[in-house]
Amino acid sequence: MPHLDFTQPPFDVLSLAERQSIRKNTQIRYLAKNEDLSVEELQYLYVVIKGQIEQSLDGEFVASYLGSNHADDYNNNDWFDSRRLPESLSKNELQPNHENNTTDSITQTYQFRAVEDTLLLQVAGNTIDKISAQNHLVRQLLSDKLPERLKALQQRRRGKALDASHNNNQQEVQQIMLQPVTDVTLLPVHIVDAASSLLDAARIMTTAGLKHVLVRPIGHSNLDAPQSHRPDHFLGILTDTDICRAVSEQQDPITTPCQRYANFNLRTIKASDEIGDALLNMTRYRVHRLPVIDADGEVAGVLGQSDLLAHISHHSQLISIQIEQAKDLSSLYTAVELIGRYIRAQHQNGVKIGNISRMVQTLNAQVFTKLWQLIVPEEVVTNTCLIVMGSEGRGEQIMRTDQDNALIIRDDYTHPDLAAFAETFNQHLASLGYPLCDGKIMMTNPMWRQPLKQFNAQIGLWFKNTDPMHGIYLSAILDGEYVCGDESLLTQVRQHLKVAHRQSDPMFVRQFARAALQFGDVNQWWQKFVPLLGAKSTSSDIDLKKAGIFPLVHGIRTLALENDILDVPSTKDRLKALVQAHALNQERADTLLEALEFFMAQRLSVALSTDDRHARQVNPMTLTALERDLLKECLAVVKSFKTQLRQHYQLEIS
Question: Edge-to-edge strand order for the sheet containing 481-485?
């Protein structure tokens, strides 16, 4: 009798006793070609030893599960839990905009048929349940919740990365990155009242050996007042630099209150957050100190940048410093190359793709800012707003793919060299490794380099949708994110987007949504792959962008547009806002985000292992059984989401 391979997931996390229990409750099941599993047999977990099982729902193909005779890795057999139920389309997941277009939850079951003579190992479901109740790793791997299973994959990758290079310095850094911020020595808390003098604050700093004190604003004398992780935290901060500034302005430190020079736009971090989160905040918001808030809402200490850097010795913060100190294109190129190494190291170390992409967005924005400042005089920076769009704008850029940028110019401001500046900027970015956009969505194109009034007029034209490209242009500007210059110009563009949308044809959003469905049923991708399982053919590859990333990104972008959510460009923030607007429920939003980040992570893996700049294609046979299972599941999420969009907007795509 064939035995389970306990070196493969989900069985590789079992204890000796759990393995023995599995062995006692496993038997062989043979299915002849075209034979189905009976209803009574849908109470087991199955491992495909040889052959192929096709999963369907109401006669519609869902997925295939393969034995070792189909796989390059003969120990990499697929498995499936026949008890798992299909994802229900609930009317709470996406609210239809027509009263007669609702979808009630219906209990359904999958069907499983042997495509050829197939040998299975049949593991009793109640045995799996007992083990899952005690082993959280098994419970995660076999969960019917996609986010839980993706979390398990992330933990496995992280664990393998740390085990494989235990003596590697970069791995040691990564271990540190996952530690809570409280593992760093925190600076003590010293709080003064806003009415206290600068002299009082200076004396406290001198006595405590600190370069700052926290400041309690007038009207906040109760330290036990509720606190939250927000930029407008009720405490402020006063630094020695602030006191020096007051002295240089000839202010009397004895009579000048701290309130006048303290900064109350204070960033904080939770004690439970990881060191990586602290670095992300320091880098993104360019702050040097973060008060740490404990579970009771009190300030446990202050995390200082120098202490944090000393603790980790190397990280993205150092790349940020190199960017800031760059004096020419050559030194900027060195910093950009470090970003690429950072991405590779973070991904290999199992860091969540969302954290990587957001940090890369922050670092790239600093590169673009520095380059623009090296090219143009200060007056141009002050009178323009440089923005990025596409995946860069959404904070989902993990590779240096095509540039997408624009320049919004203050009305009535002109400079004779703006076109030359734009050309130099785009060409220098290309030399740094950010390729020119094939679609010309760059500031070298006059369409993307205009005064505010003309920019807004152009947006109004796009909402009329008289040209097939208008939807593409609108998608780009909806994803626009500030880089440098006068941010109020982008704010005014976003305000005009709301006005133009409200004035557009009510059917516009419905037409805009069609793009999310243009690449057909995702199951066609998997069915296309199945007949070629035994061949070494690239035609079996799945296009991750067309099959997964684009339908999710554009579908969520469309829902955000419909709900007037136009001030946040990232998919993650759009989902959060859609939940708040009751357009999606929280579970559905979490699942969509996890599926998107899975596709992004697989795409990055392809990019790091090949020379493919676009890195869209993945061959499922290069994946582990666990990754293939999650790929199928994520493709099913895309299909479900597209079905919801089709019903919500009453679309039929031929």
Answer: 449-451, 405-409, 384-388, 481-485
